[in-house]
Every structure is written in structure tokens, then in C-alpha cells.
Design goal:
Elements: H1 2-15, E1 21-25, E2 35-41, E3 46-51, E4 54-61, E5 66-74, H2 83-90, E6 102-114, E7 117-126, E8 129-142, H3 146-150, E9 157-167, E10 186-196
Antiparallel strand pairs: 1-4, 1-10, 2-3, 2-10, 4-5, 5-6, 6-7, 7-8, 8-9, 9-10
Amino acid sequence: MKTFAMLVLASSAASLLASPTNFHIVGDKLAYRNLASAESVAEFETFTAKTNEVSGAIVFDPVAKTGHGQITVQVKGLDTGIPLRNQHLASPMWLDAEKYPTITFSTTSVSHLSGNNYRVKGNFTLHGVTKSITTTATVLYRAESDQTRKVMYQGDVIKLSTKFNINLATYGIKLPDMVKGKVAEDVTISVNAYASSK
């Protein structure tokens, strides 16, 4: 009886052990499922620059509810819906995609709040400038199953969602007089990305 009780306790302890897993943000044929965007709401115009060109690596432990990672967005992939505006956005006058081809966010700390919600602190790099920001993120975890395989994911799957505001001037982006009132100084960054363990 004592031996059986010890086996039960050992089994329970093993099930509670941390299980960090490496995930990579899906690409190739599934890249369209990812979406990163920057929304500008100005006095005379509102627009959103968005892209599916999102990549990155995440380590997540669904048991301990801890993790860390990095997400990268390609500047040239941003689409505002107007080709000429896209050219301006990627030009040296704005994001300067040739000199600074990517936008990145790298976590420095992650703490569980409740349910699927986390407080995330990290370094956000835009236009060659890095600033520390704190935001909240939602991480939905699904273990590999017939359902995940049916929708073409390999391995376990997580969906990561976050949203935060930035000020363009703090990243060295100065708005020309010609666009003032049409482009906001503060923009909202949103990321919704899917990552799999295989």
C-alpha cells in the first residue's frame, strides 16, 4: 500500500514538472494566418499598415506558464492599401527599410496574470532605435491533436496576441509638414501570430 502511494505521488509530481517547448512562428503556406499591423488615427485620416511577413521563435511552458521569445516583422512587407504611401513608408523619410529592414520585439521578462493572459516586458526596436516597453499578451496553447493536424499545424500550437502604443518621435521618426494631420504621432501596434513546435 505504501509503495502504491509513493508511485501515485511520484506520478503526480512528474505531471507537474515544467515542460518548456520551442515554437517557431509558422511561415510558408501558413504565413497568411499571421498578422502584424500599425494603426494611425489622425485628425484628417485613418489608415493601417499591415503584413503577414512575421517570423520568430518562442519558448513556452504551458504548465509553469512561463516563456520568452522574439518576433520580427519585415518593413518592406507593410501594406497600407495605397502603393505610393507604401513607398513613402519604406523610404528614408519614414522607416528607411533599406537601412532598417526589420522591426523586432524581444522579451526580457514574462509573468503570468490569469488564465491565458501575461504581462510582458521587452525591447522594441524600430528605425534603429530600441526602447523598453511593457504590455499584456494572450497566449492560447493547444497540444497536438487530430484537430490541429486537420488545420495543417505540426506539433503543439500557440496563438500569441498583443497590442501596445508607441510614439514615432521617440524612435527618431519625424513627420514631415506635408503629412501632419494625416499621420498620427502615436500609433497602435498589434500582433497576432501562430507558432508550432515542429
